[in-house]
Specification:
- This protein is mainly beta.
- It folds into three domains: 126 residues, Immunoglobulin-like (Sandwich), CATH 2.60.40.10; 97 residues, Immunoglobulin-like (Sandwich); 94 residues, Sandwich (Immunoglobulin-like).
- Helices cover 7% and strands 58% of the residues.
- It contains two helices and 23 strands.
- The strands form five sheets. Strands 1, 3, 5, 7, 8, 10, 12 and 13 form an eight-stranded mixed β-sheet that branches.
- The longest helix has 16 residues.
- It is flat.
């Protein structure tokens, strides 16, 4: 089937689905990995968020109009409204633990109007405790340089039983270390200082995790505490991957790489496994380097996918890698299969 006929077939089915609300709801629901989440037992004032991830599985563009909540205990936001094929977004549900207490639940209604109208309902629930308070409500490391340690303190306050205890602090992340110290116990009030350390071997990237505070409560004995931050390398390169598009045999393609550091540095060399690439390397130290890249194709080349290794004099010698790709020839078919809404 030609691309034109395939698109026309998809549009015809879209017209049919527009008149079939049940089918429309089903295709939209399939874009979500999960449609419900239980926060469990959480402390008053703690930060509690959950991201309902969705991915456009179809050839048609998807547009999310917005999301409404049935309860003020949950505030939803959409990270991205327009999705092309394979693009992702999230409906982030924030549990309002400062204003609400007790057992709470909410229905989040996500409205989509393209390729046609549909709604998906997401369920949120949890129990907000009034007797346990975290201050601050999360462990936020902020921006941390790769290879360095960081620490934050959180105070845990309990009001109730005079013999209440924290028995353990658990995490599946081996890059955390926790030191717990009881600082007050009087009149049914118990206070702990908790020092959370991020080890220097933590990997680069966004940090979104949690600690579980294990207490001696017979019910709801585990209380989650969010841990957030970003671990950034000394160097960054963009775009990565560097895609130079499609070039005819014996033709040329060009692009630019941007290499950034937190302090001035020089680029010593750029190594590439494939022939045809050339780089104009600046000779001065700078925090930001814009590097013109050219590619010369030959007749025997097809799809080129390679790794560029950029060597700098930062901190003696620091390297960073970047992927690069280019298609040589015309009429190359995409290797990734996509589907119309009708085929899901």
């Amino acid at each position: 089937m030609t691309a034109r006929k395939s698109i026309l077939a998809g549009l015809l089915v879209l017209t049919w689905l527009a008149a079939a609300p049940v089918a429309a709801q089903e295709w939209a629901r399939k874009m979500f990995k999960v449609t419900e989440h239980d926060f469990g037992s959480v402390a008053k004032g703690s930060r509690q968020e959950f991201a309902f991830e969705l991915e456009n599985l179809y050839e048609e563009d998807v547009h999310i109009v917005g999301v409404q909540t049935s309860c003020g205990c949950t505030t939803p936001t959409v990270t991205r409204h327009d999705l092309k094929t394979w693009e992702k977004s999230s409906i982030v549900a924030a549990f309002n633990t400062r204003t609400f207490l007790g057992q709470r639940s909410a229905t989040l209604t996500v409205t989509i109007d393209k390729p046609f109208y549909a709604q998906v309902q997401l369920q949120i629930r949890g129990y907000i405790r009034s007797d346990v308070v975290f201050s601050p409500g999360e462990v936020d490391f902020g921006a941390v340089d790769l290879g360095t340690a960081a620490s934050k303190k959180v105070q845990v306050t309990y009001a109730g039983r005079g013999d209440w205890q924290i028995r353990d602090v658990q995490s599946s992340n081996s890059h955390f270390e926790v030191e717990l110290k009881e600082v007050q116990r009087a009149g049914g009030r118990v206070v702990y200082d908790m020092l959370v350390e991020l080890k220097p071997d933590a990997p680069e990237g966004n940090l979104r995790d949690q600690l579980l505070i294990v207490t001696d409560d017979a019910k709801m004995g585990k209380i989650p505490l969010a841990v957030n931050g970003r671990i950034a390398a000394a160097l960054s390169v963009s775009p990565s991957p560097l895609f130079l598009g499609e070039v005819a045999p014996d033709g040329t393609a060009s692009g630019k790489l941007v290499v950034k550091g937190k302090q001035p540095f020089r680029i010593k060399n750029i190594d590439c496994e494939e022939s045809g690439f050339a780089f104009q390397i600046p000779d001065k130290a700078s925090k930001v380097h814009v590097i013109p890249v050219t590619f010369q194709a030959t007749k025997d080349m097809r799809k080129i996918a390679t790794t560029l290794e950029i060597t700098t004099d930062l901190n003696g010698e620091t390297k960073i890698k970047c992927h690069a790709c280019v298609n040589v020839g015309t009429g190359l078919e995409s290797e990734q299969d996509t589907h119309h809404v009708s085929e899901r």
